[in-house]
Amino acid sequence: MVPRMTVKTARPQANQLPQKLRTGPRPLALHLGSAATNWTSSLAALPLAKNGSLPWKRELREEAEALASALEKQSPEALVGALGSEIRRRMAAFLGGIECYQRHPYQRRFGAAFGAPATLWHEGSSRLLDYGAEMAGDDVKTVLFAPSLINRAYILDLSRQRSLMRYLAASGIRPLLLDWGAPAGEERGFNLDDYIHGRLNGAIDAALEVAGRPIGLAGYCMGGLLAMPAALARPADISSLILVATPWDFHTGKQQEIISACKLPFEAMISSLGVLPVDAVQALFAALDPLLAARKFSHFAGLAPYSAAARNFVALEDWLNDGVDLSAGVARDCLFGWYEENRTAHGRWQVAGQVIHPGRLSQPVLNIVPARDRIVPPESAEPLSALIPNSETWRPALGHIGMIASPRAKRTLWRQLADWIKSQN
User: Fold this and answer.
1) Which tens digits make up the pLDDT trace of 202-225?
2) What pLDDT digit, counting tens, does each position of 267-289 carry?
3) Rounded Cα gap, residues 208 and 176, in angstroms
4) Considering 50, 190, 299, 342, which has the largest number of Cβ atoms within 10 A of its Cβ?
5) How many whole angstroms separate alpha carbon 255 and alpha carbon 101?
6) Rounded to 10 degrees, what is the CA torsion of 177, 180, 182, 186?
7) pLDDT tens for residues 131-159?
8) Half-sphere exposure of 252 toward its Cβ, with a 13 Å CA cutoff?
């Protein structure tokens, strides 16, 4: 039997609103199945490890021989019992962490200390959020941030303590955030052209009107690829371009192999539903590291539930589990055009009939390539630095999400980023 684990609940707050239990991490069945399959497979592998026939990497050969020798000295019954106990312990910790997360009272909501930004412009499900509405003057730099279409924009404004948008505003910069929203109605038929030439251009027009001068444009992850065509098409309006973990060569990591293997079921889902469901997208991320959720939630189970670390964990997990469906055109453009065919690196990616060549960018470009990024490996983003003539490359020792939401991001990246923005003409 699985040992019963005491579930820690967070200290209730006087003004806490009632909350429905969370259902994440998404897709929950996949995360549970991956952990159970991985850990129980150890029982099947035990006889092979014991007799030395289990295949090992060459660099682990000595350790494998030592392990086989140690296992030989143990009774089969004791080994199976010990291994079974360890599997039950790990699963109990994982399940306990999930239950703690699902019941945690944290909610991201605006209040006196964390006010909602003003909406500067909106169209359909998209809106442009202004984090510096009170700022004006010729010396104030305005920068429009375009996030990915896959996850919600508020990763850049995750909480009062971890908000790149509010940090930049406090540094004297006027940051604007394009919240794409979730595709609804006719947006379910959008492709990348619709978002770039429609929504992004509309947001840029609104930003130019309030700035009264050319603006900076920044793109995070996929948002960098969406921003690049706009910077190419509007050099007089875009004074600088910031690319943050922006992929270019899509054949450098595991994603291409995973997507190619899933092409038929993904195409069937897209054709049948008109969108690629968010859980299918989440499954792609989970495939990069099938046991990541198990490690994260097992660690979370040991945190003091009302600690800052626990609240930060829940805030980030809530964002991760709050993804959106991808419209049919966007899903095909990204999964098959980018990841499968690598149209970007091969010089065949077109937006509104124009091939996108980074080498034609005339603005100063900052290419931020996180050294510990597993979602956009450095090898995928680095080629942009060689292709763009007027570019500067930073390689912070951070991960894809860590550079936006980790405690280290402020001192290792945000401060320098604010200085760079203010230094631009």
Assistant:
1) 999 999 999 999 999 999 999 999
2) 999 999 999 999 999 999 999 99
3) 11
4) 190
5) 28
6) 150
7) 998 887 778 999 999 999 999 999 999 99
8) 17
- Chain segment 369-423, per-residue pLDDT in tens: 999 999 999 999 999 999 999 999 999 999 999 999 998 999 999 999 999 999 9
pLDDT in tens, 232-270: 999 999 999 999 999 999 999 788 888 988 899 999 999
Q: Residues 118-254+325-423: name the CATH superfamily.
A: Alpha/Beta hydrolase fold, catalytic domain (3.40.50.1820)
Closest CA to 276 of 185, 351, 188, 151: 188
pLDDT at 19 (0 to 100): 58
